[in-house]
Amino acid sequence: MSVWIRTLLAGSVGLAVALLRRLSGYRAASDRAQYDVLTGLLNRSAFEQRLNGWLASGTTAAAPFAVLFVDLDRFKFVNDTFGHALGDRLLIEIARQLKANVREGDLVARLGGDEFVLALRGVKDARAAEPIAGALVKVLATPVELDGKRLHVSASVGVAIYPRDGADVQALAKSADAAMYAVKSGGKNAFHFADHGLRHRQARCLEIERQLRFALQDHELEVVYQPQVELASGCLVGFEALMRWTNRELGAVPPSEFIPVAEDAGMIVPLGHWLMREACRQAHDWSAFGLADLTVAINVSTLQCRQPDFLRQVDEAIRDARVARGAIELEVTESVLIDEVELAVATPRRLDRMGVRTALDDFGTGYSSLAYLQRLPIRSLKIDRGFMKGLALAPSCMAGSVVPIVDAIAALGRELGKTVLAEGVETEAQARYLKRIGVDRAQGYLYAKPLSAAHAERLLRRITAAREPLEPLAAVAGDPRASGAWRAHTAQTAVTGGGYFPFD
Ligand code: C2E
Ligand code: CA
Ligand code: CA
Predict the structure, then answer these.
(1) What digits encode the pLDDT tens for the residues 424-440?
(2) Residue 278 sits in the same domain as residue 155
(3) Which atom of ligand 1 sits closest to the CA of residue 498?
């Protein structure tokens, strides 16, 4: 500036004009640094700066306000189908709609891709934010006409309110982002308010992920074994291997909590590999008891199946443990079958060729094509434990009864020559019913909870010595978990379905 003034003073107007142009060029460049090139909205850093400005200006002018995270739901589809040029024009149109639906002085920014963020002044609580967020969702769900094409996108919107959901830009962004993710996983095309429970759950997941990274090296994992019985004879026919984790800081974390985190973070691959080796080794040890056809079932997650060396790892675990191939059964869920056709068809076939059996876990909860069942060498179907509650409680003719479904699964399995196993069997009445409709096997608290390897072995020893069937609940006699404390715990976990045993 001083150069310019000096030049002006020197009377060189031409030079001054040139400098002036350069200066406005600087300004344009600094503007460009603030705005998103495609949409002309504020960019991320400018948005943060302005919001920080609101916060710094004190409570009077700024507070309260709401931060809204907007993420388009089907943008990738539009981009992939109609090309990037049209995708860009759609983003420009969305930016225009966002701008048109806020008031003067509100902030609208593009964070990148199909993510936008808004800050709305004077919105003090959920009640005030609700109509605005609702209107936004509605506007964004209206089809946009571009180049004669009707484009359908919608948006998931997460709303955080200052100061309730965060005292600074980072905390507010986190809250709004978490709320937006809740919408995404709950079906999209809606808005959701940040809530502390949600943030708390996400913080817990992060902590689990952090701790889980060391679980293997710190020897915090254990495998427990839940007996499976043949309904007709009551004989023990196998065990399902289940993972248990007791962390130094978090204590006992149930698999329903840590397995999904491990799956999301990719950690299920090393954990699952470890469990497979451990369970194979155990199966080999137990083969010494001479129980014919005793199988150890191992859960494998979709991510594990997708590993290029998955089959080699299975083969290696079996070889290294020197266990008979027929003694190992891999439990896969229906998602393995629907996610990728190639994987769905190839994996069970290759396993079958290797002599390893496959069971379809949680059957009846997914959407597997029934055609697969016939084509694939899947040995058994495990009826999901969710069906057990409604069993033997209500007559099958009652609306919403699960009885016809369980009947149908049993019949289907029989027709296709599969072994049908019901899991989560808790009462004699359920067992009687399942036996009557021809279900082959059962597993559940009625017989035994998952047992530590040592207890499972004690049970095997007793059974082989006495050649006795596994009487309901007899399995746990002599087991510390059959004590009053254990029973109380059983009742508790039966409700939550956790089934974890901290008493080993
Ligand atoms: P899942 O494979 O369906 O395992 C059966 C679950 O039902 C087990 O819960 C078991 O303890 C519980 N259960 C057994 N009998 C009863 C009963 O009578 N009533 C009730 N309410 N529950 C019963 P758990 O051990 O907590 O495991 C939960 C889930 O975590 C498993 O469901 C499985 O999806 C996953 N999981 C556990 N271990 C592993 C593992 O090693 N690898 C993988 N990928 N997933 C695992
Ligand atoms: Ca299972
Ligand atoms: Ca299951």
Answers:
(1) 999 999 999 999 999 99
(2) no
(3) 26
Contacts with 420 (C-beta within 8 Å, 6 or more apart), sequence order: 380, 381, 383, 409, 410, 413, 414, 438, 439, 440, 441
Do 108 and 189 fall into the same domain?
yes
- Expressed in angstroms and rounded, the spacing between residue 291 Cα and the centre of ligand 2 is 22
Pair 360, 380: CB distance under 8 Å: yes
| Residue 310 tokens, joined | 């998955």
Name residues whose C-beta falls within 8 Å of residue 236's C-beta, 6 or more positions apart in sequence: 227, 228, 229, 291, 294, 459, 460, 463, 469, 470
Tokens of 54: 């609101």
**Partners of 115 in beta bridges:** 71, 112
| Overall domain count for the chain | 2
Q: For residues 161 and 176, give the distance between their C-alpha atoms in angstroms, rounded to a whole number.
A: 8
Q: Is residue 325 part of a domain?
A: yes
Q: 357 with 463, same domain?
A: yes
Q: What is the DSSP letter of 160?
A: E
- Residues lining ligand 1, CB < 6 A? 226, 242-243, 254-256, 259, 268, 272, 275, 299-301, 361-362, 385, 423-426, 443-445, 450, 494, 497-499
Tokens found for residue 245 = 């984790």
Q: Does 420 reside within a domain?
A: yes
> In this structure, which long-range contacts are made by residues 252-255, counting pairs with CB atoms below 8 Å and at least 24 apart in sequence?
252/500, 252/502, 253/208, 254/496, 254/498, 254/499, 254/500, 255/500
Atom of ligand 1 minimally distant from the CA of 497: 21
Under DSSP, is residue 70 helix (H, G, I), strand (E, B) or coil?
strand
Residues in Cβ contact with 327 at an 8 Å cutoff, skipping those fewer than 6 apart: 283, 284, 287, 294, 295, 296
Final residue belonging to a domain, choices 158, 184, 201: 201
pLDDT (tens digit, 9 = 90+) per residue, 332-360? 987 766 666 666 778 888 999 999 999 99
* Full domain range(s) for residue 135: 44-201
Q: How far apart are CA 165 and CA 64, in angstroms?
A: 11
- Number of CB atoms found within 10 A of residue 417's CB: 8
Cβ(86)–Cβ(147) below 8 Å: yes
3-state secondary structure 36-47: CCCCCCECHHHH
State which H helix or E strand residue 251 sits in.
Answer: strand 251-253
Cut 0.70: pTM above it = no
Over range 476-503, report the average pLDDT.
Answer: 34
